[in-house]
Write a structure and sequence with these properties.
Order of helices and strands: HHEHEEEEEH
Shape: globular
Distance between the termini: 26 Å
Largest sheet: 6 strands, antiparallel
Radius of gyration: 15 Å
Strand order of the largest sheet: 1-2-3-4-5-6
Structural class: alpha+beta
Strand content: 25-35%
Length: 142
């Protein structure tokens, strides 16, 4: 779900801002988009209500990222017994004018797959960034 729609309280809004700032500190040329999904019925049917989705856009196609835009999905799970909600991982995908170029998931096996993958240094920075996101959202949970 669009990050702008998930910012329902001060704590969540602060964590979303921290994610954007962390990404921009590593990749200063990027522009963030807190509403990457359009508000139409077809798109709404595909949106995961248990995620926070943020788009990041470069001024042009990034050779290091092998994409122009990145869609980042922070995935959550609510324990039915305790009611506690935890970040369970991050999924990212890189896009350019030809469509999806690569995808990466910490929920699965921490591997990049796709037609063109980011440079090794970028892959390592993205993995670090994803670890930081999960830690940020789960901080304070037992």
């Amino acid at each position: 779900m669009n990050a702008a729609e998930q910012a329902k309280n001060l704590e969540l809004t602060s964590k979303i801002a921290a994610v954007v700032n962390l990404f921009k500190s590593e990749f200063p040329d990027v522009r963030s988009d807190l509403k990457p999904w359009t508000n139409d019925p077809d798109t709404r049917s595909l949106v995961d209500p248990d995620s926070i989705d943020i788009g990041f856009h470069f001024p042009g196609r990034s050779r290091a990222f092998q994409s122009r835009s990145i869609l980042l999905q922070i995935r959550f799970y609510e324990d039915p017994v305790s009611g506690e909600t935890r970040a369970i991982g991050v999924e990212a995908a890189g896009y350019d004018h030809q469509g999806q170029q690569w995808r990466f998931s910490t929920v699965e096996n921490w591997r990049f797959v796709g037609a063109s993958e980011p440079a090794i240094e970028v892959k390592e920075k993205l993995k670090y960034f994803c670890r930081e996101i999960v830690e940020l959202f789960n901080r304070g949970l037992a």
